[in-house]
């Protein structure tokens, strides 16, 4: 897919790059076909070599345990209970279809709770050893279509993200 930049994509890219430089999480929200995934993929591909991108696809069956395994794959143990990407790199988790996982009986979405815990506190727990893992130099970029999936994004998680709303198609394919 080829992304043809327009004034709107140029504006969005500028703000997205600012948020990424500051290490802030962000979420693009828009209907199907507006180009969220292609736009984010193009922007992340153009980042400097200081960044590593890990794609994290969500679906209805994504659990917090499965998500944690995916999130831990690109991490290295540093010192003590500290983990992060290799070298002095920054890791960006690109989560597509953020609102797809199942809502449990208590009204929570387990993968969102794990992400919120990491963003709020900078850690999560090792599920086997039941010990704290401090996670450094990682941030989140997410996309979601508000018209499909569980329609549930925890307000506490929404309050952390910087939202960008996409209302019209962003890409034009040849």
Flag low-confidence runs: 160-174
Main sheet: which strands, in order across? 2-5-8-1-9
Give the fraction of residues assigned to helices.
Answer: 25-40%
Beta-strand residue fraction: 15-25%
Count of discrete alpha- or pi-helical segments spanning 4 or more residues: 5
Instruction: Quote the distance from N terminus to C terminus.
Output: 8 Å
Total number of beta strands: 9
Main sheet makeup: 5 strands, parallel
- Write the CATH fold name: Rossmann fold
Shape estimate = globular
- The CATH architecture assignment turns out to be 3-Layer(aba) Sandwich
Q: Specify the structural class.
A: alpha/beta
Tell me what you see in this structure.
There is one protein chain. With 174 residues, the chain is α/β, with parallel strands linked by helices. The chain has one domain (7-166): 3-Layer(aba) Sandwich (Rossmann fold), CATH 3.40.50.300. It has 5 helices and 9 strands. It has a 5-stranded parallel β-sheet, with helices on both faces. Strands 3-4-7-6 form a 4-stranded mixed β-sheet. Helix 3 (64-72) crosses helix 4. The longest helix is centred in the N-terminal third of the chain and has 15 residues, at 7-21.
